Amino acid sequence: xxxxxxxxxxxxxxxxxxxxxxxxxxxxxxxxxxxxxxxxxxxxxxxxxxxxxxxxxxxxxxxxxxxxxxxxxxxxxxxxxxxxxxxxxxxxxxxxxxxxxxxxxxxxxxxxxxxxxxxxxxxxxxxxxxxxxxxxxxxxxxxxxxxxxxxxxxxxxxxxxxxxxxxxxxxxxxxxxxxxxxxxxxxxxxxxxxxxxxxxxx
Length: 202
Known about the structure:
Distance between the termini: 39 Å
Largest sheet: 9 strands, antiparallel
Oligomer: single chain
Order of helices and strands: HEEEEEEEEE
Strand order of the largest sheet: 1-2-3-4-5-6-7-8-9
Number of helices: 1
Number of strands: 9
Mean pLDDT: 90
Shape: elongated
């Protein structure tokens, strides 16, 4: 999808992370929430009639990941290892209205469904300080392994800029792919794009 199309369908989105560490061990929480909606209309001529079709779909996607972290390498280019669980929930509802012969015959269909699952995952993060202000950050993980989803993987590359001793701005690119297939339900999704954020340390 083009970026303009994404902005047309995105009603609301939010990402957040929380991390705490003592010595080499730590905990990490990552949350993503997206609410999207789209609609379509069509008026094809069929059997002399002029059916009007109106459809609207709404999707809410929530992802919450929690992991233990271990600092495998200290210094100006630290490396952290991740291992944890990622919970995914989808809420979908669809409305379809169809009318024929100017509304003389019509039908309305409403469907909604909820699906959720949990995936184990492992990952690694590497950081490199360019100077006292700029830090490069790379992250990647893989998961699923047939436990929940068949396979998931994620990668991001960005930079942090220290605004003060406790606050930094961040920007970069993030890609997240999920391949889930269970009992007739197929979810093969790729989420990717630029991100901007702010971090607070305390």
